[in-house]
Every structure is written in C-alpha cells, then in structure tokens.
Amino acid sequence: LDGTGQVSVETGVPFFDHMLTSLGSHASFDLTVKAVGDIEIEGHHTIEDTAIVLGQALSQALGDKKGIRRFGDAFIPMDECLAHAAVDVSGRPYFVHTGEPDYMVQFTIAGSAAPYHTVVNRHVFESLAYNARIALHVRTLYGRDPHHITEAEYKAVARA
C-alpha cells in the first residue's frame, strides 16, 4: 500500500489492464498482476477472479489497520463524466453502486484480444469490496461515454 504506483498488469483484457493500471497508479500502491483465463470464451471470469484476488491482497495488506485513515472519498471528473467513491476500511464489507446509465449493462469496450463488457464494473467493485472487507460506495453523478464513466469510477475508487 505504501508504494509508488509501480504497476505491471497482464490479464489478456486490454481495457481491464488499463483500468487496473489506473487503479494502482492513482492509489499510489504497487501492483503486479499476471492473470491467465478463458478469455477466448469471455473475459468476465478472468476480470472477476482478478478483482477477488486483488481484494484479498488488499485485505492482507491492510492487516490490523492501525495507522490507517478509516474513511476516504474522492470525486473524479473525466470529460463529461463525474464519479464519486467513498470507502470505510471498517472490516464490515458492503457495496453500493449507483448512477450508471442503463445502457452500461449492454455496452462493450472493444479490445484487440478480449472486449470489456461494462456490466462487469459492478462485479469488479463488489468483488473487491467484499474480499478486501471494506465498505465501498461508487456512484456516477452524470456522464455519457461508457469509457469515461468506467475510468472515472476506477480512479475515484483509487483516490478514495
């Protein structure tokens, strides 16, 4: 957690790699991820499993939480979008995700190897929160572009 934002990510899903790189660099923690999954079928399982393991690693890194500020939040703008995240490292896992436009459940961000379906945003943050044992609230206040919404959410979580 007390890193410098050094990030190396290889999941086979280029857009997810980009999001994890943003997460690590904006949270200023060092992150190395090498995931191998069934992306030729779909990247959903690889993405969700990576979020589960990342949450477990975060829980382990938090340890007894002594000396850690319990609450944090951040607003992140990205062009036309504004996202907000709030976190409580209480040890009581909970997750709330609101504000994404309805079309986000059907949108796909194309990638050369495997696409990123924005419906997994919720799964990523939920898996992260429950496995890190944190309360996490993520909301999009407004926005149109699914890429911008997704990236603003990841960066807000990182900064919170």
Task: Please explain how this structure is put together.
With 160 residues, this protein is α/β, with parallel strands linked by helices. It has one domain (7-159): Ribosomal Protein S5, domain 2 (2-Layer Sandwich). It has helices at 14-27, 44-62, 120-132, 146-159, and strands at residues 7-10, 31-34, 71-78, 81-88, 94-98, 108-109, 116-117, 135-142. Helix 1 (14-27) links the parallel strand 1 and strand 2 (31-34). Helix 1 (14-27) packs parallel to helix 4 (146-159). The mean pLDDT is 94.
What attributes characterize this protein structure?
two-stranded parallel ribbon, 8 strands, four-stranded mixed beta sheet, alpha/beta, Ribosomal Protein S5, domain 2, 26% strand
Number of helices: 4
Q: How many strand units?
A: 8
What is the ordering of alpha helices and beta strands?
EHEHEEEEEHEH
Major β-sheet profile: 4 strands, mixed
* Ends distance: 13 Å
At CATH level 2, the architecture is: 2-Layer Sandwich
Count of discrete structural domains:
1
